[in-house]
Amino acid sequence: MNDKYLRDIILSFMIAGKDTTAASLSWFLYMLCKNPLVQEKIVREIRDVTSSHEETTDVKGSVESIDEEALDQMQYLHAALSETLRLYPAVPVDTRCAENDDVLPDGHRVKRGDNVYYISYAIGTMTYIWGQQAEEFKPERWLKDGVFQPESPFKFISFHVCILSLSPRCGC
């Protein structure tokens, strides 16, 4: 490993992070436009958490009142962001390469070196996994008594958990 290699890896992560974040935020804003009641709940939650109940044009003051502690209290916002990522993952199709021979949960045999593609976009709308309303935008599915409840990374795979012996880089 040399400085050029390290620089290229860091740059690659920065570019990938910028693009996926921009795409996710675009889908989030789209979902808010299509769901004004969700938008109202998020605005109400932000105002409640930051104690800014009056409408203001002071963007700097509003931004300064949002710190890590305030973000931790924004349960509905977290749910709406997770719901957006479930329906519109930043990386809708991904691949893994088997490092060893293995058997997938459905019984399919995978040999060392085989590529396995999975479509997180499709998985996010499967009724088998998410219920009959899987295609609907419902941030409430992430809440229990108003508190955000994370799902298993094997169910909510927007962040592409590695499964079984499959790894992001082929060991061939």
Describe this structure in words.
Helix 1 packs across helix 5 (75-87) and helix 2 packs antiparallel against helix 5. The chain contains seven helices and seven strands. It has one domain (3-167): Cytochrome P450 (Cytochrome p450, Orthogonal Bundle), CATH 1.10.630. It has 172 residues and is α+β, with helices and mostly antiparallel strands.
Number of domains: 1
Structural class call reads: alpha+beta
Indicate the overall shape. Answer: globular
Write down the Rg.
20 Å
Query: From the coordinates shown, what is the CATH architecture?
Result: Orthogonal Bundle
CATH superfamily: Cytochrome P450
For the biggest β-sheet, the strand order reads 4-1-7
**Average of the residue pLDDT scores:** 86
State the share of residues found in helices, binned by percent: 40-55%
Instruction: Just give the CATH class.
Output: Mainly Alpha
Strand content: 5-15%
Low-pLDDT residue spans: 162-172
Which H/E pattern describes the elements?
Answer: HHHHHEEEEHHEEE
Distance between the termini: 20 Å
Query: Can you tell me the CATH topology?
Result: Cytochrome p450
| Number of E strands | 7
Give the tags.
two-stranded antiparallel ribbon; single chain; 7 helices; 47% helix; 172 residues; 7 strands
Secondary structure topology:
Elements: H1 3-34, H2 36-50, H3 59-64, H4 68-73, H5 75-87, E1 93-98, E2 102-103, E3 109-110, E4 115-119, H6 120-123, H7 127-130, E5 143-144, E6 147-148, E7 166-167
Antiparallel strand pairs: 1-4, 1-7, 2-3, 5-6
Helix pairs in contact: 1-5, 2-5
